[in-house]
Amino acid sequence: MRIKADPEVCIGSGMCALTVPDLFDQSDDDGTVVVLRPEPPAERIAAVRGAVGRCPSRALQLLDV
Predict the structure, then answer these.
(1) Domain containing residue 40: CATH number
(2) What Å distances lie between residue 27 and 1, 15, 60, CA to CA?
(3) Nucleotide-binding as a keyword (predicted)?
(4) Shortest CA distance to 38 belongs to which of 9, 14, 11, 5?
(5) Host domain of residue 55
(6) Over the stretch 3-40, which tens digit does the pLDDT of each residue have?
(7) Longest dimension (CA), the chain
């Protein structure tokens, strides 16, 4: 699995970073999403799905690679 984030779509709500802070952060410049670990460990997939579902701008995807 791989996390894909589109910072152009991100509105900087921070839901991803609040939900899974070990995998997501926010840019210091504009608050948009920063993916810390694009290939999350298997035990964190459910948490990533939660973050994807909470993203109000739909800037996140979890891709089956």
Answers:
(1) 3.30.70.20
(2) 23, 13, 15
(3) no
(4) 5
(5) 2-63
(6) 999 999 999 999 999 999 999 999 999 999 999 999 99
(7) 31
> What single-letter amino acid sits at 44?
R
Long-range contacts of 10-14 (CB under 8 A, 24+ apart): 10/55, 10/57, 10/59, 11/56, 11/57, 11/59, 13/55, 13/56, 13/57
The number of distinct structural domains making up the chain is 1
Tokens of 53: 């579902």
Contact indicator for 33, 50 with CB cutoff of 8 Å: no
Q: Residue 32's closest CA among 55, 61, 48, 3?
A: 55
Q: How many CB atoms lie within 10 A of CB 26?
A: 17
